[in-house]
Amino acid sequence: MPWRRTLHAREDLLRTARRLLAQDSTRVLTLTGLPGVGRTSLARALVAGAPQQLPVPFIDARRATEPGALARTMLDAAAVFDLIVVDDADLAPSVAAELTRVLDTQPDARLVVTAGAPLRLPGEAVVRVPPLPEPDLSDDPETYAVQPAVRLFLDSAERSGATITPDRETLQDVAAICTALGGLPQAIVLAAARTPTLTPATLRSLLADAPPSTVIAHQSAAQGHDLFTAIAWSESLLDKSARELLADLAVFASAVPLEAIAEVIAQDDLVNPLAVLVDSHLAQPVHYDTGSVYRLSPLVREHAATLLSRRPERAAELRARHTHWALGVAHESGKLTVSGMTTYALGLAAELEPEIMAALQRSVESGDVEAAAQLLLGIVPCWFSQAVTESEKGWIDRVLALVEEHEPDRELLAMLLAWRGLVGVELATGAAGVAAALPDLQRARELAEPIGGQLLTRVLMLSVLAGRVMGDRSALEPLCRRGLEVAGQLGDVAAMTSFEAWAGMLAHQRGDIDEALRCARAAFERAQRLGNPRVMLLPAALLRTLPSGTPIGDDVPSFGELLDSARRVQDNRSLAWILPSATMSALVDGDLDTAATLAVEALRRARASGNPRRYLIPTLTTTLLAHERGDDHVSARLQGALSPFRQVLAPALPPWVVRDYGDSIFGPQPDLALPPTAEGALALLQVAGEDALNYARSLAAAPTIRLVAPLEDTAGLLPRPEELTDREREVLGNLPSGASNKELSVQLGISAKTVMHHTSSIYRKLGVRGRSEAISWVLRHQDELGHGDEHARGNRA
User: What is the pTM of this model?
Assistant: First the structure.
């Protein structure tokens, strides 16, 4: 029985199985797992390495449709062989009794069995076969190439005859596909088999909009191995209580703790049926030091949702209980934030974000104003910490519109307005965008001032945070003083520390170093007494950014210590500020190697955030790094991409940076055609951010895996623009707008799939690796592209 297929990330399982099989006490080794997880592949690999003289018989239990048929087949094999493989044993009738009969009759026989759950036989050892680890979609895409699920997809696509270039965008698409399929190997293989027809980007889009069964279902049905039918069969073997629990679990969108399941499902005996689901691999446990969480894989959840839909009254009850529970999570996160435990608050919200979002969508659709507002306020700090997006701002707009349609609660309205104002500033690309967001903050303060207390403190904090990109910050200092006063009345030491630190930043910005030092030291000493490392980051980092020679004190942590602390508490916003500041400090000290290493981390975190605006400051520091190294062609190119953002970039910089490096940042611009729209500017910034990352990485001392080419002139890739068709030129010219394939299809009057085919052809003819590099090519070769357009028009004439 030859074995040829590559096993992905199964080496440890194989070693465990071999060790158990070699033990004298093991008469039955059962490999359990969800259908499609690779139990059969593991069994074949296991016996292929066994030290027997003869081939091992492989019995397909699905063919034993009559009682006694399986035992008869096995006894015939056991007369010759000591080791027998029985595949899909739980699909045969009375399997436990039949296997027991064989073991009693043939005392020297040993069995390797694959099944959905343990068979509870004498001498049985069990190896649980889990799905492949799902890629973490927040990781750097370059890490995906070595992850087993992604490798399986790419290998399977190649076997299907597709040619896939594993560039950054493709790896992101493949990782999302693998996650949408729960890391289930057979589902990944089936999806990869579609790649001769559909690109990974199209598959990802289909899986985002439709259940997996509609994308990959019928490919293996002709072979009798329909994955979804197998899952339904596994469910049919459950007892009534386990089957009902499986259906009820469809109300959850992600992994949740046992306490959440108990609160939402409200079932007296929960542990036993849950254990049955875990044994059957229909529920997946994940164990941590602090407890366990349970989830359904996407394919199982689809089947469970179908079961639940047959009980509409139960489904409605569960949705209501789920919303109530999610509101409790949002409320707890808010309490933790107010008490200064921001790390725990953000961690709680981030861990259960899919559940909060499911409840939020349900509440908005049903018009439940208070629930929608409370849920949004529970999750929006998490969004802001990571890097808020336009889509998330859309949720704030929807909830605010719902609130204002009714007689609003003033406290809820104030907080929603404050968050929308801050998020609007965060997403602004120029002074006009900032100005448009400020009225929300002003109105929020007007609502909060008569109420006072924690509400006013929170609104003032959000208002001051929004000031970092304001050109005129004179209005912020009174807000800091008012915030310090209100926080002092409440005894909110964490808030007092933040307001003092912000006051120090404002003083630093206007050039009053003595006042900046006084405020920063007061805030730092207050944070030390509080003993909260997250609160300490802001004043300590401010002290470190004061001009060289300022007597900040010997007790202030170094940049390296601050970075370690920020990573430890997972404070992404502080990291987004401290990393560039540490890079600038290294540049001032002449330590260009350290500057490059820090720039790489800052740029990689900006990339992982998914928000192009996060590239701004790290790209700026990389521009200065290139300038210091004398790589003027690099600094000029990066500087050009920063130009559209001058109005929001300049106010965010310390005065000494503008003084010492102003010409390098805001001096004469390179001859580069800048996009006319904000979307185009963001697309150009994203391209520059990738260029900056590749450049900084080429300088950093640590070796890295490079899946994207180092910074170089794309003309060296030998583009062939003369081969572009008229329609391809039209599509190419629209790429810098930042429009999606679907949006381009509407603009051009063609289908999204046709746009996708055109872009693939464009990438090939220009010698680029994806949309980002194509946009970069357009912006750098306007004359050449224009000449080509004239040539094409001449041909048409």
Answer: 0.77
